[in-house]
Amino acid sequence: MSAAHDAVERIYREEYGRVVASLVRRFGDIDVAEEAAGEALLTALERWPADGVPPNPGGWLTTTAARRAIDKLRRESRRDAKHQAALMIDDDTPHEPTGVVEDDRLRMVFTCCHPALAPEARVALTLKLLGGLTVAEIAQAFLVPETTMAQRITRAKKKIRDAHIPYRVPAPADLTARLGGVLAVVYLVFNEGYLASAGDTPVREELTGEAIRLGRVLRQLLPDVPEVTGLLALMLLTEARRPVRFAGGELVPLHEQDRGGWDRALIAEGHDLVRACLAAGRPGQYQLLAAVNAVHTDAPTAADTDWGQIATLYAQLETIAPSPVVSLNRAVAVAELDGPEVALALVDRLDLTAYHPWHATRADLLRRVGRSAEARAAYDAAIAATGNDAERAYLARRRGSLAP
Amino acid sequence: MSQYLLSVHHTADDPMLSAPLEEMQPVFEAVGRFNDRLMAEGAWVFAGGLHPIESATTVDNTGAEPIVTDGPFAESKEWIGGFWIIEAPDLDAALAWAAEGSKACAGKVEVRPFQEEPA
């Protein structure tokens, strides 16, 4: 691979979502848009290495792809008499008003995350159409065979076409409800990248990077929705710790991390965003989680962590978005404030036996209260429940440090 | 504009099925108001409630001779109780009608697009 080739690939990946989304708006068909975008890439790969990258590569790709799509529709309209498609060749007027914000990618995100599509299809389509990931990459990220992922994406695209799922940002009144699903998809993509559910790659940077990029697009387009800002802040503050989260193939937990290795620029940006969204006075789950991470990244050493504030934030989260996972996280803060016995009582009440952090947290608390035999069993259960090798290595070391 | 079938699904343990007629009156009235709205907004194509599932007869003429059987084509605990056919610009509009229809008739509503006429 030449350097020029790599550069084309990189620009293409960055511009893909924009190119496809604008072609979908114009031609009203995802397959036409994707095929034309693919042909534009081939042309770019031929020309750019020799002629140089054009000053506006995104615009070049969109124009080239649009010409390809028009050529294709002309050929088809002659063959199949597809009058409707033929009309679009000359009709460059914008479609009907498209909602609160005019942005092709935002429209695509809402189309991909439509509640009429299955949740796993929403994630896959978002990554495919906006992130430009290949079906093979998406299948690998979610540990399903490529054929399964291909079928899932094909079915979703077919449903969009047959049921006439609109390419539209919902009306302001519906935005909050629908936005929840969009944010959930972006966060899911981020989390899968941040702690891969299996395999020897503990982190998948292309997924965390893509989720953050989508988060930035959403924030650019919906700057006044505090949860959008909260999610971006949460991802940035989490991402900031990534460089020191793994060492020697082993997970390094928060309190053991070398804070000198945290990305200060991301932390500063994250803190600004947390302040901005909380100022709106409408705290939601992403804002509160971001605030928790702001407290962690604010402490110069682990011992300086303001656990009281973290416990308060999780308690607030328990009221607005109660879940046993939130209660588990609050218990971790409670352990620091009121001691491991109190926290253990909270943790034992939670119905989370299928969730490996529950076993890992229990193991740690049992170790701290001196119940070594039970701690060992809990470490065993945690190790059995996680598919991430680096996390397994960490848990095995902790188990090994127990009294025999 | 596209056409959608909004079908209403009843289940065997639906309390509505055994309710006396006067208790059903508010449901009939709500459905009547919903139908009026569909017509007023130009979304109405056709609608109808169906007699209970016991009234169904199934005809199978895929073999040599037509076979007529008493009962629905499949034994199941859910069946269609009635339906609307509506015109809507897109799925979101159809789903909004379905949400209103479901509330009115106190049943689950499935939304399915009709196939387009071949060009």
UniProtKB/TrEMBL annotation, chain A:
| UniProt-listed GO biological process terms | DNA-templated transcription initiation
Residue ranges occupied by any RNA polymerase sigma-70 region domain in the UniProt entry: 12-79
Q: Does the keyword Metal-binding apply?
A: no
Domain DUF6596 stretches = 178-276
Q: Which Gene3D superfamilies match?
A: 1.10.1740.10, Winged helix-like DNA-binding domain superfamily/Winged helix DNA-binding domain
Answer yes or no on keyword ATP-binding.
Answer: no
Where in the numbering of this chain does the RNA polymerase sigma factor 70 region 4 type domain appear? 110-160
* Pfam annotation, one family: Sigma70_r2
A molecular-function term among this protein's GO annotations: DNA binding
| Keywords, sorted A to Z | Sigma factor, Transcription, Transcription regulation
Q: Where is the signal peptide?
A: none
Q: Which InterPro entries match?
A: DUF6596 (IPR046531), RNA_pol_sigma-70_dom (IPR014284), RNA_pol_sigma70_r2 (IPR007627), RNA_pol_sigma70_r4_t2 (IPR013249), RNA_pol_sigma_r2 (IPR013325), RNA_pol_sigma_r3/r4-like (IPR013324), WH-like_DNA-bd_sf (IPR036388)
What family does the Swiss-Prot or TrEMBL record give for this protein? Belongs to the sigma-70 factor family. ECF subfamily.
Q: What is this protein called?
A: RNA polymerase sigma factor
From TrEMBL, chain B:
What superkingdom heads the lineage? Bacteria
What's the family? Belongs to the YciI family.
InterPro entries reported for this sequence: Dimeric_a/b-barrel, YCII
Gene3D superfamilies named in the record: Dimeric alpha+beta barrel
Q: Which PANTHER family match?
A: BLL7171 PROTEIN, BLL7171 PROTEIN-RELATED
**Cross-referenced SUPFAM superfamilies:** Dimeric alpha+beta barrel
Which residue range or ranges hold the YCII-related domain?
A: 19-113
**Name under which the protein is recorded:** YCII-related domain-containing protein
